[in-house]
Amino acid sequence: MNVLMVASECAPFVKTGGLADVVGALPGALARHGVDARVMLPCYPSLFPLLPKGVEVASFGDLPGGSGRLVMVEASSETAGLTLLLLDAPQLFDRAGKPYNGPDGQDWPDNHRRFGSLAQAAARICFDGLEGWKPDVLHAHDWQAALAPVYLKQTGRTVPKTVMTIHNIAFQGRYGPQVMPELGLRHDWFHADGLEFYGDLSFLKAGLVYADHVTTVSPNYAREILTPRFGMGLEGVLQARTETLTGILNGIDTTAWDPSNDPALPAPYDVKTLKAKSASRLALAGKLGLDTDHAGPLFCVISRLTEQKGLDALAAAIPHLVDQGGQLAVLGTGEPALEALFQQAAQDHPGRVGTFIGYDEGFSHLVQGGADAILIPSRFEPCGLTQLYGLRYGTLPVVARTGGLADTVIDANAAALAAKCANGFVFDEVTPEAISAALDRVFAAYADPKQWQAMMRAAMRQPVGWEEQAGAYVSLYESLLQ
Ligand SMILES: Nc1ncnc2c1ncn2[C@@H]1O[C@H](COP(=O)(O)OP(=O)(O)O[C@H]2O[C@H](CO)[C@@H](O)[C@H](O)[C@H]2O)[C@@H](O)[C@H]1O
């Protein structure tokens, strides 16, 4: 079976968040099930070095954003081989800045054309194929790829089948109706049951309406987005699709994220050598200027600093965390006000709170390796990957009961502790008080090394790889093709 993945990010080549991890790891996992999945991506500057190694397999004269060519390249990351299909259109993608915004932090004003072009190129290659390779399924990820199923539907053909995955429903790609003609979308589909969302064109809604199947990245989030609290205005669209909406939990790349073999850690450790984790703690403390002789638990945050992640509430609980004897390592970048809060916390609590504002993949491994617990107080979380990395590294997740966090973290309540399956701490409200109460439970557990280590072992033994989840995608693809 052939699958064309269409996305705006793919680790390790271009990443702003968890979408990239999934798109980078899922094809390799699908390959082990006999699926040939290829990833179509915009050719951003970080991908230019790959171009000379590739071959041009298609060219387009009239995408919404002008001309472009498609270059196929076998790209190998440290851990896996991937076949990438790069949409090389310099007028759209050869820009300084980030995938979605310029150096000034503002969204590129032509994002509808940039990602409309990606989607249209993807739809066009489905029929002619690429040197004998034709997709049976087109799998679009998030709003940036969401018009691909629509362009396919506009042709009236029924193959390939289309899957639309929601990684984050908060980002919808919403533009005024004036962009409709330049995107080549059917005007008679611009209505409330089609492309239109409160007078605008919504890329994500369009994908949700016209894809053959919709998935999101955890079973719990698949239920949550049917409600006004989590659906971000799209709950009605999704309620109409409950028969064709599935939650498939994300996995992680357990080769790239392996504490027994991670070049970012000063010493390897595994479930039998938990004590060796202390070398990572020392290295992390040294890097962030934290006291190295501190006895209490070292918490960490690794996150985009945005409203979604509930970190304003966490920041308000930092004095309590410090008073109770904790330390905190923060790695993040995002909203300036949140960056300032954590920088201030580091100044207020020298030796106890260390903040690194920036994006650093290698350092994120050391933070996972060195911390005792990872704090994830998200207001909503479709799946969450950092708690999965935390489990794998014996860094116990302390999470809000939402989305995929609730699906993956087993709270240290009496029953779970007795059954030796507790692997973290779960709290209900994203408030400084509830976070402080959860921290108190962490401090109590940490004071009992036997119990803490039992939890670390339970965490590290939890299967978090892609094996099972990739199988779920294969079953879904097969059911669509029947
Ligand atoms: N400053 C920094 N430096 C280095 N690495 C950093 C970093 N900040 C974040 N990261 C990394 O970025 C990724 C974030 O992934 P998440 O799944 O936790 O959230 P995100 O909201 O981006 O993803 C969305 O998509 C994913 C994938 O489906 C869903 O799991 C999630 O719930 C949804 O919100 C992780 O790999 C993390 O280590």
Q: Characteristics of this structure?
A:
alpha/beta, binds adenosine-5'-diphosphate-glucose, 482 residues, Rossmann fold, 2 domains, 21 helices, 18 strands
Question: What can you tell me about this protein's structure?
Answer:
The chain has 482 residues and is an alpha/beta fold. The chain has two domains: 2-251 and 466-481, Rossmann fold (3-Layer(aba) Sandwich), CATH 3.40.50; 274-461, Glycogen Phosphorylase B (Rossmann fold), CATH 3.40.50. 38% of the residues lie in helices and 20% in strands. The chain is built from 21 helices and 18 strands. It has helices at residues 18-31, 90-93, 111-128, 142-145, 147-155, 180-183, 203-210, 219-224, 228-231, 235-239, 277-288, 311-316, 318-323, 336-348, 361-370, 386-392, 403-408, 414-418, 432-446, 449-461, 467-481; strands at residues 2-6, 36-42, 55-63, 66-76, 81-88, 137-141, 161-166, 174-175, 196-197, 200-202, 213-216, 245-247, 298-305, 327-334, 353-357, 373-376, 396-400, 425-427. The protein has a nine-stranded mixed β-sheet, with helices on both faces. A six-stranded parallel β-sheet has the order 15-14-13-16-17-18, with helices on both faces. A three-stranded antiparallel β-sheet has the order 8-10-9. Helix 1 links the parallel strand 1 (2-6) and strand 2. Helix 3 packs across helix 5 (147-155), helix 5 packs across helix 7 and helix 11 crosses helix 15 (361-370). The longest helix has 18 residues, at 111-128. The two termini are 12 Å apart. The structure holds adenosine-5'-diphosphate-glucose. The site of adenosine-5'-diphosphate-glucose has 26 residues, from helix 1, strand 13, strand 14 and helix 15. Adenosine-5'-diphosphate-glucose binds at residues 17-19, 21-22, 167-168, 217, 250, 302-304, 331-333, 359-361, 364, 381-386, 404. Pathway: Glycan biosynthesis; glycogen biosynthesis. Pfam families: Glyco_transf_5, Glycos_transf_1. Keywords: Glycogen biosynthesis, Glycosyltransferase, Transferase. Its EC number is 2.4.1.21. One of its GO terms (biological process) is glycogen biosynthetic process.
